[in-house]
Amino acid sequence: MQDRPFSQSVETSIAAQKFGIGQPVLRKEDDTLVRGKGRYTDDVNLPRQVYGVVVRSTHAHGVIKTIDVGAAKAMAGVLGVWTGADMVAAGYGNFVSRMPLKSRDGTPLLQTNKPILAMGKVRFVGDPIAFVVAETINQAKDAAEAVVVDIDPLPVVTRASEAMKPGAPQLYDGVPNNMVLDYYYGDAEKTKAAFAKAAHTVKLDIDNTRIVVAAMEPRVGVGFYDKAKEHYTLYVPCQGVAGNRVLLATLLKCRAENIRIVTGNVGGSFGMKSVNYPEYTCLLHASKVLGKPVKWTDERSGSFLSDSHGRNSEVTAELALDADGNFLAVRVTGYGNTGAYLSGVMPSPLSLGIAKNVASVYRTPQIEVNIKCALTNTSVMGAYRGAGRPEANYFMERLIETAAEKMGVDSIALRKKNLIKTGQMPFPAASGLTYDSGDFAAVMGDALKLADYAGFAKRKRESKREGKLRGIAVGAYLEVTAPPNKELGKITFDKDGGVTLITGTLDYGQGHASPFSQVLSDQLGVPFDKIRLVQGDSDIVHAGNGTGGSRSITASGQAIVEASRLVIEKGKEAAAGVLEASAGDIEFKDGNFRIAGTDRAIHIMDLAQKLRDRQPNGGSSPLDVDHVTGNVEATFPNGCHIAEVEVDPDTGAIRIVKYTGVNDFGVVVNPLTVAGQVHGGVAQGIGQALMECVSYDADGQPITGSFMDYAMPRADDIPPMMLDTHPSPATTNPLGTKGCGEAGCAGSLSTVVNAVVDALSDLGIKHLNMPLTPERVWRAIQDAKRQSAA
């Protein structure tokens, strides 16, 4: 009874501090990051630390004749130089793809089994050949330049379609025609029949350009080996510590328990930092040999060569329609560029990602996807924001615009005719997936109103008076988020009165702290500002699949909900003892354990404190929970974006004058965080659509190897955005959430390109491949004028 007044007063103060689901709460970490108080990996410096530098190939393809490290080893401050032979002698493993993909004939994906450092051959400019360690970074750089590598050059191939032609240079003896995977999904006979009976068909050759990830923070690592404990520690920016620990253990040929991975703040990744790289094994090997911590920090020029790139496919996309404009089948065939060796997720974004997403929000009875994935003498490829989803939606939306133009019908009406109806949910898509929820027609309707689509004709006339070409385009999209996985939800009530939430996902810019705290606060009633999030230490985060594929709020949200339920069950037992009642009589609501039908209650924070005080030697709280979910199901975020552009016909310059998006992300936990994610995704889609493109010359030398050569969108390239939501809660997870992190790319890629083509359509221009640079647009305009005059 003595607790009652105190618990009642706490109940009032807690309620005042609660931030629940749906509130636009500022990101917890922003004050730290914008004031420069974050702790990134390059901020880590250990006692007795020395420095590493990578020697990289300057040839795109060639036989390594000799590697002379003698002069480098003799230089001042140099502590060691290691080559591929040293790594093989140490018994380390090779890099392989983790994707269980099979070719059309049933044979498994062919592995490239890349060693830590190049052996026998180099296969791309930037291929790591040697690792130099010295007492200072400048000494290491000087020594790296002194390593003499004699390479006998071989012919080079940089495009996937060229790599599979007869007589093309062969990168690996065990991969005939450079083809690692002949991916196929669909029913060839049914698709062929659909096209045969179609009243209308359209076909487009589409280049999905290669993109540099260009994260704000380059890759970096600090490695240390404790000989006495036979234990490795790696400080590294990544997308999930638990999974990366397991992957690193397979390379080091040791138990995962012998490795600790620590990740602090991460300056972006977009998929690129999700995998292990050769430098990390080199760091740990050097530390093991030298008995000192070793640090390596990439520079931007090195990042352009050594980080995984994204996208990069060449496809022919086709759509078949009946006389009434109903979709009968979509077919995508072509080539995917995997780079010089397979990274952990390759070639899934080039193949499986297309098959799962190309049907989008439309009733498409048949889909057929056949992508031949080929090795080339280019930088390694990996996941990049969306990992196959933006381009799949892009293919479909370009086809719809082309079909509408050919048939002489309104493209909006054509889309609406083929949208999946809400009454058809759950909808078994031709991709083999079942969409659980969505109101696609309402989303499109909301977007058209928000964009004032009906008023476009007037705005087009105004632009024409000013000598500009104006275009508008609608782009619907649907994505399937990351596949089912288990996730960690661990909750501890700490001695200082705070609550620690531990999840297996990892924040590398998404802003997890606030929405995750909102979910926990909503479930348990604990104060929002008392919750701390821990994600970046594999000694604490023992399970989880990291962040990727727009899975975080769904996976971690489900883990938090399930773990909270376990806390409540424990709390009812504990509260029964404190309140001198039966556990069956205890109710829980808004953070309070209450004897049913009475005003006797104790708040969960008071209960945790009382239980902690009773623990001998300050042990863990009896309310603590360490929980791993079962499989977390995929979700299907979707939306409709509309871009409006002006083109200057004299220069080819493009200005996006208006951008609108209505999205269905299910239950939105934090609208501010979601808006930020959409803004960033849209910006990246604009970058690919209008300017970004990695290029190589005939010798395989990258000619876009720095920001002097590779265009990136700037602030004035990104328009103000009008965004809204039309949620249809997911039925596959307890919160009803759907992913949002990559949706902006899926929406903007097609809308921006289609809008530009619409602006140019009056000149007879029907298709352009990305990037739509001013030069490319200007040349298309000049060609169109010459053809018109002729």
Verbal overview:
By secondary structure, the protein is α+β, with helices and mostly antiparallel strands. The chain is 31% helix and 22% strand. It contains 21 helices and 28 strands. The strands form seven sheets. A seven-stranded mixed β-sheet has the order 3-5-1-12-9-10-11, sandwiched between helices. Helix 19 crosses helix 20. The longest helix is centred in the last third of the chain and has 28 residues, at 552-579. The radius of gyration is 28 Å and the shape is globular. The chain starts with a helix and ends with a helix.
Proportion of residues in helical segments: 25-40%
Question: Uncertain regions: pLDDT < 50 for 5+ in a row?
Answer: 1-17
Structural class: alpha+beta
β-strand amount: 15-25%
Order of strands across the main sheet:
3-5-1-12-9-10-11
Alpha-carbon Rg, integer: 28 Å
Shape: globular
Mean pLDDT: 95
Count of helical segments?
A: 21
User: Which sheet architecture does the biggest sheet show?
Assistant: 7 strands, mixed
Counting DSSP E segments of at least 2 residues, the number of strands comes to 28
Distance from first to last alpha carbon: 96 Å
SSE arrangement:
Layout: H1 4-17, H2 30-34, E1 50-56, E2 62-68, H3 70-73, E3 78-83, H4 84-89, E4 121-122, E5 128-134, H5 137-146, E6 148-153, H6 160-163, E7 179-185, H7 188-197, E8 200-211, E9 220-226, E10 231-235, H8 241-252, E11 259-262, H9 278-290, E12 294-297, H10 300-306, E13 310-321, E14 327-337, H11 352-357, E15 366-374, H12 389-407, H13 411-418, E16 427-428, E17 434-435, H14 440-450, H15 456-465, E18 469-478, E19 488-493, E20 499-503, H16 513-524, E21 531-534, H17 552-579, E22 586-589, E23 592-595, E24 601-603, H18 604-614, E25 625-628, E26 638-647, E27 654-664, H19 671-690, E28 721-725, H20 743-760, H21 774-789
Parallel strand pairs: 1-12, 10-11, 14-15, 20-21, 27-28
Antiparallel strand pairs: 1-5, 2-4, 2-6, 3-5, 7-15, 8-13, 9-10, 9-12, 13-14, 16-17, 18-26, 19-20, 19-25, 22-23, 23-24, 26-27
Helix pairs in contact: 12-20, 16-17, 19-20
